[in-house]
Design a protein that fits this description.
Helix content is 33%, strand content 21%. With 396 residues, it is α/β, with parallel strands linked by helices. Helix 1 packs across helix 11 and helix 9 packs across helix 12.
Amino acid sequence: MSNRPLNVGLVGGGKGAFIVNPHQKAIHFDGTRRVVAGALFPDPKIALEEAANWPYPIRGYGSYDEMIAANKSLPDAEKLDYILIVTPNFVHFDPAMKAMKAGIAVICEKPLCLNLREANELVKTARKLNVPFGVAHTYLGHWTSRFSRYVVQSGLLGEVRWVDSYYLQGWLATKLEATGQQQATWRVDPKRAGGSGCGGDIGTHALMQLRYVTGLDVTEVSAQMETFVEGRQLDDHFTIYCKLSNGGKALVRASQICIGSKNDLGIVVAGTKGTLRWRQEEPESITICLPNQPDRVYWRGAVTGGDGFLPKELPADLMAEPTIPAGHPEAFHDAFARLHRGFEADVRKWKAGEKFNCDGGKYANVEDGWKGIAFIETCMESHKKNGTWTALPVEI
Ligand SMILES: NC(=O)c1ccc[n+]([C@@H]2O[C@H](COP(=O)([O-])OP(=O)(O)OC[C@H]3O[C@@H](n4cnc5c(N)ncnc54)[C@H](O)[C@@H]3O)[C@@H](O)[C@H]2O)c1
């Protein structure tokens, strides 16, 4: 494939949409990817108007069906290399399947889809057609998440005994959906969000952070899924005690009724030799606590090996990643850009007919998305049985 920027098509993103904004900035971050097309809204007329009013020229389509169908007859230089799905959860499965079948790679927002039946289909199709498929678990893209993964998985903290992975918010502490607020209304509707509200929306991020940093899987859950706001159909508070694949234990918890908490995603990993702490609201550093020593704070861009805790040689690709010096803050948009950058590398290999990774190291893949859905469905089952320990399905 030529050196031209990758062409990205948006599914969703018109009329006051939220997450399309950081994504589209991240797509343009390096100059090697660009948004060229969009099916931005369910109503075709509005979709075309929204595309015409996009801040830079893009091809507008009345629907994602049209956008995907039109791709076949475009000249190579204009064909879509991947689509980004930023619609509510009930509009993930269909465009993702159609894009893969049309030979277009996919980055889909989390949670992957509505249920395990859809998730199974997506995994099988991505494998059968050998198409790159990413799931937008934003927080893996922080350099400090990658560093945390290295610290834990290289055994520097010993064996993992306990993990507390959490995502606390307060924006749904009142019945915001009753005001018609766009992002709230579909998130509390089981038909559009799936079987769990808070768990599906942000509990899946907490689970993914745990799995990414530790490399461990959740094998069994004892779940409590509560609804504090009267009249709301789905959980707004999600507390899951977990058994881990190495015999350790974890709490994966999420809440949307914690007034004062904004996007408080964080992780504490307690190993036999020490503990790691990280919070995405202050994503530039991690803290390592070792017994009987002052805590060590490692800042992105200022990490050097051979300091008495880290080995002298640190992984080359991890150390090559930061792009700006420590103290010039990186945050949410940089994390998104890292996901798109990793995905771009795989798409370029795929287009060149080479083997691509898609191994979950640089961004969550379709199997990670499947595990998120399997986790949610198992939590729902456990919760119905009053928190009885319930095993997750084995990987497909
Ligand atoms: N990774 C993250 O950090 C993160 C953060 C927020 C949201 N999300 C996920 O992103 C997705 C979107 O969330 P949001 O908060 O941006 O929602 P939103 O309501 O702000 O935006 C959804 C957009 O999809 C459009 N849409 C709906 N049906 C469509 C269709 N059939 N065709 C074309 N467009 C359609 C809507 O018109 C709107 O533009 C959800 O799956 C959500 O879970 C992820």
